[in-house]
Amino acid sequence: MRSRYHHSSLLAAALSHNIKHTFIHYLCLQSDLIYTNSHNGEKNSHRRTENIPNLLIVNWTQNEVGSFPPGKKITIVFVIGGPGSGKGTQCSMIVKHFGFTHLSAGDLLREEAKSDTEQGMMVKNLMHEGKLVPSELIVKLLLKAMLQSGNDKFLVDGFPRNEENRQAYDKIIGIEPELVLFIDCSKEEMERRILNRNQGRDDDNIDTVRRRFEVFQESTLPVVQHYEKTGKLRRVDGAKSADAVFEDVKAIFVQLNTQANQVSSVSRAQSNPFKRFLDLFCGCFGTQEATN
């Protein structure tokens, strides 16, 4: 057994300049995890990543990433669909026609998994096993990418995947999506597409694909139902060709642009005191003419 003195020493050392790795080591001992110190080059493929606390995963490798300026209008659209439903293809077309920045939660995680960090290796293991990555980490990766883009219109692809994702998004970013685009496609069609695309991705083998389908049905469909109840959901048939699907998608975004322009015009008019005075003056003058 490890002595209390050993644990106390670790906590004391956590107050020094090496706080990050020492504190992780202490928590791993408490949780009976296997800790890998990348500075010493030690590797262990049997780490029990599923038990690492979410707060630890997010905070021991990332500082706060910042936030949007107060009052800045940010447009966010979630794009949801099963694996192989064609989300990425539709997002590329939307970006080309409507000027959004496309952020794929999956791509951000795969990029993180390539990094030579404890967090990157943890993400890689979870994805290979077909398990979900902690929500706080995904949201902070999304927020960081948004702030770095310089844009104010975002397509968030493959997110939220479950209620925990949605709640973490509300807590950390808190900007209500303008709409949620759901690309509806059958399991058989999605499986056929994934197995035919042959992109060499680690998470495209048949067993992992089927686990991803199960996770989608159990965790993501309730999110779809939530947004349907709130009136935010827009559903398109993803079984059609990519061009045919985009015709439906384009109509949705044209309507979104029209509504945004109308709101912007009203806001500009309300923020212009001289314009309000003219409207009031003309209104009064028109009333007098009608009376005479």
Automatic annotation (TrEMBL):
Gene3D superfamilies: P-loop containing nucleotide triphosphate hydrolases (3.40.50.300)
Single biological process term from Gene Ontology: 'de novo' pyrimidine nucleobase biosynthetic process
Domain notes: Consists of three domains, a large central CORE domain and two small peripheral domains, NMPbind and LID, which undergo movements during catalysis. The LID domain closes over the site of phosphoryl transfer upon ATP binding. Assembling and dissambling the active center during each catalytic cycle provides an effective means to prevent ATP hydrolysis.
Reactions catalysed, as given in the entry: CMP + ATP = CDP + ADP; dCMP + ATP = dCDP + ADP; UMP + ATP = UDP + ADP
Purpose: Catalyzes the phosphorylation of pyrimidine nucleoside monophosphates at the expense of ATP. Plays an important role in de novo pyrimidine nucleotide biosynthesis. Has preference for UMP and CMP as phosphate acceptors.
Positions contributing to a ribonucleoside 5'-phosphate binding: 110, 131-133, 158-161, 201, 212
One annotated Gene Ontology cellular component of this protein: nucleus
Native source species: Digitaria exilis
Location in or out of the cell: Cytoplasm; Nucleus
One GO molecular-function entry: phosphotransferase activity, phosphate group as acceptor
Family, as annotated: Belongs to the adenylate kinase family. UMP-CMP kinase subfamily.
Keywords: ATP-binding, Cytoplasm, Kinase, Nucleotide-binding, Nucleus, Pyrimidine biosynthesis, Transferase
Keyword Membrane included in the entry's annotation: no
Name recorded for this polypeptide: UMP-CMP kinase
Protein's UniProt keywords contain Signal: no
